[in-house]
Amino acid sequence: MRVVREIAVAAPVADLWALLWDVPRMAACVPGCADAREVEPRRRYAARMSQRVGPISLTVPLDVEILEVEPPRGIALRARGRDPVVGAEIAMQLRMSCEPRDAGSALRVEAEGQVLGKLGALGHGVIQRKAEELVDEFAARLARAVAV
Fold first, then answer.
1. Cβ atoms 15, 146 nearer than 8 A
2. What is the number of structural domains in the chain?
3. Residue 60's domain is classified under what CATH number?
4. Domain residues for 117?
5. CA-based diameter of the chain, in Å?
6. pLDDT tens-digit series, residues 35-87
């Protein structure tokens, strides 16, 4: 699956960049994310994601690795995990780019991922729709978080 969105943010790039590195605030923006913590400063993180996709509920412990950082413009990361009960494996890469705009800034989100196992058997369409819903919810929560 692949999802690309541009999110308008009513804050300057510097504030948006600071939010991207604030683990508790970012975790609150990611639907279903719990227990996010820094393992190695600005390099590795651990989190737990819980989601329902079609008839399947899963909880995935994720290992998140920062692949690239270009302050204050962009960040690329990889997240991987496996639900031990359902057996679903998730691997995704995410690139976020900050750009100045007249009324604040914009965050471009490019997410690509694979879902394997029982969850992957649901089909590309179901997984693609869920991914789009999650990114759209992330956008709404990020807009609210930056306004605080």
1. yes
2. 1
3. 3.30.530.20
4. 2-147
5. 48
6. 899 999 999 999 999 998 878 888 999 999 999 999 999 999 999 999 998 88
Burial tier of 60 (Cβ tally within 10 Å: 0-12, 13-18, 19+): buried
Assigned token pair, 29: 């923006």
Q: Which two tokens stand for residue 11?
A: 């804050």
The whole-angstrom separation of Cα 106 and Cα 122 is 33
Closest CA to 70 of 38, 102, 108, 33: 108
Asked, as a colleague might, if the bond just before 72 is cis with ω within 30 of 0, I would say yes
Structure tokens at 80: 């991987």
Distance CA 141, CA 129 (A): 18
